[in-house]
């Protein structure tokens, strides 16, 4: 009879979820410096060794919190295939693509914004945070390159710029630092969403195109 380890796997997922949630709450309440492996482990009801074994340390824990916040759950589904991106996948014109992408960008910015404000505000003083920032920037660039590739296949990209340069422009428009600057100016989610859509129409996608 084959050994069924599903119960152990479920327990491990629940433990991981508790640790990630405890870390998220502490990061938002105490900041990066005030959050420790010891305090996260205590709040989650596990040992420090469990946290280190699962996440590899504080930086790995932060990345897990970011990924969970960004995706909304721990399901092994890539972002592009999640329901959040359904309207973007269904877009049949450049205008629809701009609206859908602006909706996605505003949702993501609102979800991860508070966490990134905590993490990135201290990155200049901590090599782990600099590495985290570089990692999420690279992941965002990979994501926008995929979007630009699809838009290019549809013929929706504005002429006169290479796909790589277009990806750089899109990557900058939806950068967390840009959203943070606008947030400090008191911009609402709706205003930011509308600005992203306008920027896409002006800099990335054709107007009134196919």
UniProtKB/TrEMBL annotation:
<dbReference type="Pfam" id="PF00440">
    <property type="entry name" value="TetR_N"/>
</dbReference>
<dbReference type="InterPro" id="IPR050109">
    <property type="entry name" value="HTH-type_TetR-like_transc_reg"/>
</dbReference>
<dbReference type="InterPro" id="IPR009057">
    <property type="entry name" value="Homeodomain-like_sf"/>
</dbReference>
<protein>
    <submittedName>
        <fullName>TetR/AcrR family transcriptional regulator</fullName>
    </submittedName>
</protein>
<dbReference type="InterPro" id="IPR001647">
    <property type="entry name" value="HTH_TetR"/>
</dbReference>
<keyword id="KW-0804">Transcription</keyword>
<dbReference type="InterPro" id="IPR036271">
    <property type="entry name" value="Tet_transcr_reg_TetR-rel_C_sf"/>
</dbReference>
<keyword id="KW-0238">DNA-binding</keyword>
<feature type="DNA-binding region" description="H-T-H motif">
    <location>
        <begin position="36"/>
        <end position="55"/>
    </location>
</feature>
<keyword id="KW-0805">Transcription regulation</keyword>
<feature type="domain" description="HTH tetR-type">
    <location>
        <begin position="13"/>
        <end position="73"/>
    </location>
</feature>
